[in-house]
UniProtKB/TrEMBL annotation:
GO terms for biological process: DNA recombination; DNA replication. The lineage of its organism: Bacteria, Bacillati, Actinomycetota, Actinomycetes, Kitasatosporales. SbcCD cleaves DNA hairpin structures. These structures can inhibit DNA replication and are intermediates in certain DNA recombination reactions. The complex acts as a 3'->5' double strand exonuclease that can open hairpins. It also has a 5' single-strand endonuclease activity. The keyword Hydrolase applies. Belongs to the SbcD family. This is Nuclease SbcCD subunit D. Heterodimer of SbcC and SbcD. It comes from Streptomyces boluensis. Keywords: DNA recombination, DNA replication, Endonuclease, Exonuclease, Hydrolase, Nuclease. Residues 1-218 form the Calcineurin-like phosphoesterase domain.
């Protein structure tokens, strides 16, 4: 059975205020053309269909068009909700849409209810595990501690239990939206850290033939059977070197995996440039970036006048401008920036406690701080879902 694995469409998202709906529409065109040309048997969309819980109407229209075109091809599609989606909104009408071959899995209770498709070698069971916010689904899965590994592990236990009751030789595919250990993040994914544990081991997917992952925006192979497709478009300058693609997966009669990357259209390439303004404006080596979307970081010790306007004269698609003046060693601004670099909210809070009190928090205080951040994160997520 031939599968096309994609994820993280983020319909409705802009790139530094530049609308991407035309590029997203071009991707849908490419997706449909690939399904037809490669004789795909099923399309897998592993979450973050939209960029936010209440997407703009234009994004909904692109999604609606995609569903109609996939249904017209007669190729089944299995789709889950991600952490950017409103699971309840995305799942509206799922029963009716399913009759057209578009199978939406947006609720935790549906994790062990597969979409079963067949080829010449027997059945393939497709299990959809939508993004599982631990604080909101721990009761559903009866786990004692609200953590990503606990809830995803419990969901996979249900999958394996259902699979064990199916005819011998039934092959299996899981769609999941999560941060799996070994994956390389970018700046454009929303943090899903809870309880200090942000990732789950790839071993949680043991027992299935293929795990089609969403959430991280870079195409990645964690194991032969556990892969991220990545997003079809770049959504931050940290994705400058990403090769945007989809996975074309051939699932053999005994569960063998053969994988090929299918490149996605690139609306405009990205470039990060850094240096003093006059150097950036004159360096001939930077000519190749003049048609790119550009993020410029100026190193001038004194901020130059009208830097954005001057940059745009040479790089008309400059979208982001930052300042990082070169400072001598020992400069307090440098040391403070270095202390904060790479730290999460809890670590910054602990550093602040140490700064004002002279000593860091003890284990009990650390637990209180972590609990406070977890509560804020869960409340924010619950409000977004309820919107």
């Amino acid at each position: 059975m031939r599968l096309l694995h994609t994820s993280d469409w983020h319909l409705g998202r802009a790139f530094h205020r530049v609308g991407l709906l035309d590029a997203q529409t071009a991707f849908i065109d490419h997706l449909v053309a690939t399904v037809r040309a490669e004789r795909v048997d099923a399309v897998l969309v592993a979450g973050d269909v939209y960029d936010r819980a209440v997407p703009p109407l234009a994004a909904v229209e692109v999604f609606d068009d995609a569903l109609h075109r996939l249904a017209d091809l007669g190729v089944p599609t299995v789709m889950i909700s991600g952490n950017h989606d409103s699971a309840r909104r995305l799942g509206v009408g799922a029963g009716l849409i399913g009759r057209a071959g578009i199978h939406l899995r947006t609720g935790p209770a549906e994790c062990a209810t597969p979409v079963v498709l067949a080829d010449d070698h027997g059945d393939v069971a497709f299990y959809g595990l939508p993004y599982l916010e631990p604080a909101l689904v721990k009761d559903e899965f009866k786990v004692k501690k609200a953590g990503h590994e606990a809830v995803l592990g419990a969901a996979m236990d249900r999958v394996r239990a259902d699979l064990a009751g199916r005819p011998e030789g039934t092959r299996s595919v899981v769609l999941a939206h999560a941060f799996v250990t070994g994956g390389e993040p970018s700046d454009s994914e929303r943090d899903i850290t809870v309880g200090g544990v942000e990732s789950v081991p790839a071993a949680v997917f043991a027992g299935v033939d293929y795990a089609a992952l969403g959430h991280l925006h870079g195409c990645q192979t964690l194991t032969e059977r556990v892969r991220y497709s990545g997003s079809p478009l770049a959504y931050s300058f940290s994705e400058q070197h990403h090769r945007k693609s989809m996975w074309l997966i051939d699932l053999g009669p005994a569960g063998e995996i053969a994988a090929e990357r299918i490149d996605c259209p690139v609306p405009r390439r990205l470039a990060r440039i850094e240096g003093e303004l006059e150097v950036l404006l004159a360096d001939p080596e930077l000519e190749r970036y003049e048609d790119h979307w550009v993020e410029a970081t100026l190193a001038d010790a004194v901020r130059p006048p009208e830097p954005m306007a001057r940059l745009c004269e040479r790089f008309p698609h400059t979208l982001s401008l930052a300042f990082a003046p070169r400072r001598p060693d020992g400069d307090p601004a440098v040391s403070y920036a270095q202390r904060l670099k790479g730290r999460d909210d809890r670590e910054i809070a602990e550093d602040f406690v140490a700064h004002v009190r002279g000593s860091g928090p003890d284990p009990d205080e650390r637990a209180v701080l972590q609990g406070a951040f977890d509560d804020v994160h869960a409340d924010d997520f619950a409000r977004e879902v309820a919107r």
